[in-house]
Amino acid sequence: EAQVTQNPRYLITVTGKKLTVTCSQNMNHEYMSWYRQDPGLGLRQIYYSMNVEVTDKGDVPEGYKVSRKEKRNFPLILESPSPNQTSLYFCASALDLLSSYNSPLHFGNGTRLTVT
Amino acid sequence: GQQLNQSPQSMFIQEGEDVSMNCTSSSIFNTWLWYKQDPGEGPVLLIALYKAGELTSNGRLTAQFGITRKDSFLNISASIPSDVGIYFCAPWGNKLVFGAGTILRVKS
Fold first, then answer.
1. How many pairs of residues across A and B have Cβ atoms under 8 Å apart?
2. Partner B contacted by A1 (CB < 8 A)
């Protein structure tokens, strides 16, 4: 089954403790992206990647890192999480950036992160 | 920067009623997408609009791409309980942006 898989679904951590949220897609998509969803703000893009070893900042990249060493995986890293990073995070992928409005973004089921 | 306004923020309607929501922007876009997010899941694409003035239907859903290319609306006719969720407009200019979402609740 074609899908985007995020892990974990839920994570509670403390300020400053490094964490990684994994994202994997099995559709051979070139484009991958991370969003955070906060009430009243919709989905805001954190980082995106147009292909292996190519990553770019989105609208809210501060406090986050990503890597794209292989096509299928796009982990989100929080080196020193803070309470304002408490949010619902979504990973998404598409065939490629230029055609992503034709081949839609496929989203994972989300990771709810709480930083205390 | 570009401003994207989606309204209403939330709706609580009776089953069988029609629903209307819209997005307006200060910027011109080439494509308007509408996504739905079911509770506990990621958003899924409902409808894509590629031309100004385009009116597209998908079952009980109808969406239009405004003539000015700065707005779009989504209508749902004869709502049913499984329509509950958050609906996002997502216009595409040089990148995809998402509206703040419309939360839809349906009373059966």
1. 46
2. no
Check if the beta carbon of residue A31 is closer than 8 Å to that of residue A94.
yes
Residue type, B24: T
CB contact under 8 A, A101 and B42: no
Spatial separation of the C-alpha atoms in residues B59 and B48, rounded to whole Å: 14
**Does the CB of B103 have a partner CB in chain A at under 8 Å?**
no
**Any CB–CB contact under 8 A between A73 and chain B?**
no
Q: How many CB atoms lie within 10 A of CB B7?
A: 14
How far is it, in rounded angstroms, from Cα A111 to Cα A25? 15
Q: B2-19 pLDDT, tens per residue? A: 679 999 999 999 999 999
pLDDT digits (tens, 9 = 90+) for A6-33: 999 999 999 999 999 999 999 999 999 9
Q: Is B80 on the interface with A (CB under 8 A)?
A: no
β-pair partners for B65: B72
Contact B47, B60 (CB under 8 A): no
